Amino acid sequence: MDSDKNVGGRDRLIRAVLAVVLTIVSLRWLRSGKHKRGLLAGIGALGLGFNASTGYCGFNDTLDIDTTADDDDVFAPNVDDEPADESTDVSVDFTSSDDAEASNGHASGKLTCAVCEDPIVPGERRGPNEEGAIVHESCE
């Protein structure tokens, strides 16, 4: 048996969905007394489940069909030679020297009250005042 993968992407996903559907059909037929149909559906579910989980199909191998190159494999991570997305980290400072007083200490990383200029600690109730500056709830 050739161990190379020849089932990929959407083909594997369709086979997995069909395996689940055939399993349900097989169980219903077996419960209703249609044992031959239930057994055949169960064997089909096992075959399609094997194809979906391993990525290998004997019929595809016999007929020289390879669906791994058609589209991306939905069950495997992206292993292309090129990275999918090259991103660059950019740091932007939107404050100017005129905004230093209005920033309430945002540039330094500490939040201060615009009215009393005391630091606002995490968990302390705060909100914007009429001018939009962050203040303690008691300083509003």
List the helices and strands and how they pair.
Blueprint: H1 10-31, H2 35-54, H3 58-62, E1 126-128, E2 134-136
Antiparallel strand pairs: 1-2
What's a concise summary of this model?
The chain has 140 residues and is mainly alpha-helical.
Description:
This protein is mainly alpha-helical and 140 residues long. It contains 3 helices and 2 strands. The chain has helices at residues 10-31, 35-54, 58-62, and strands spanning 126-128, 134-136. A two-stranded antiparallel ribbon has the order 1-2. Helix 1 packs antiparallel against helix 2 (35-54). The radius of gyration is 31 Å and the shape is elongated. The N and C termini lie far apart (77 Å).
Structural class: mainly alpha
State the share of residues found in helices, binned by percent.
25-40%
Oligomer: single chain
Report the uncertain regions. Answer: none
